[in-house]
Amino acid sequence: MKKGLLIVVSGPSGTGKGTVCKELLAKLPEMAYSISATTRQPREGELDGVNYYFLTREKFTQMIEEGGFLEWAEVYGNYYGTPLPMIRKKLDAGQDILLEIDTQGALHVMEKCPEGIFIFLLPPSIKELEQRIRGRGTETEESLQRRLGAAKKEIQVGRKYQYVVVNDRVNLAVERIVGILEAEHRRVAQNLNLFEVLEHEGK
């Protein structure tokens, strides 16, 4: 059976990762979404096991010690991680899995799963990024500047990804990602079984 693709999408805060990933999953309903674990408190409307697995710091550190994460990182004082067992199960069953994680976590995944598909989402400009973050109305000027500084560093890390997609319009960004995934599914390494069938017939 052909294994599923591990698809990692990252980008600076305010780039629209969540919106793009939501629309991508709606367009490709057969794709699974990897629910991350975190120690931060739920935001209004967020549900445990739907948006995140909300864990205590004690439980999270226990899972780290047991090797229970594909990757984990501390971001803005909270832990975030990708639980490993469900990832393995779905990939082995041939299902594609989407991971929406930060660059720090993605670098760890690159080391453990170099066969993954790594897509970096860029804003049209830093000015547009700032406007999007301001538009949330949730940041102080100090935290806004901190996020913009972090965004510039993350953009530098984006050079290590395989693909880059500019999120100027959500629907276009989603179409670009779909095109990437269609091409990846047609790679020879993903379709060796087709060659094996034909070679067997020729004997």
The sequence of SSEs as H and E is EHEEEHEEHEHEHHEHH
Uncertain runs are none
Tell me how many strands there are. Answer: 9
Helix content: 40-55%
Strand order of the largest sheet: 2-7-1-8-9
Shape: globular
Largest β sheet strand count, sense and barrel closure: 5 strands, parallel
Distance between the termini: 22 Å
Per DSSP, the total helix count is 8
Q: What features would you describe in this structure?
A:
The chain has helices at residues 17-27, 57-65, 84-92, 103-112, 126-136, 141-157, 170-185, 192-201; strands spanning 6-10, 32-33, 37-38, 53-54, 69-75, 78-83, 97-100, 117-122, 163-166. The protein is α/β, with parallel strands linked by helices and 203 residues long. A five-stranded parallel sheet has the order 2-7-1-8-9, sandwiched between helices. The chain has a four-stranded mixed sheet with strand order 4-3-6-5. The protein is globular. The two termini are 22 Å apart. The model has no long low-confidence stretch (mean pLDDT 89).
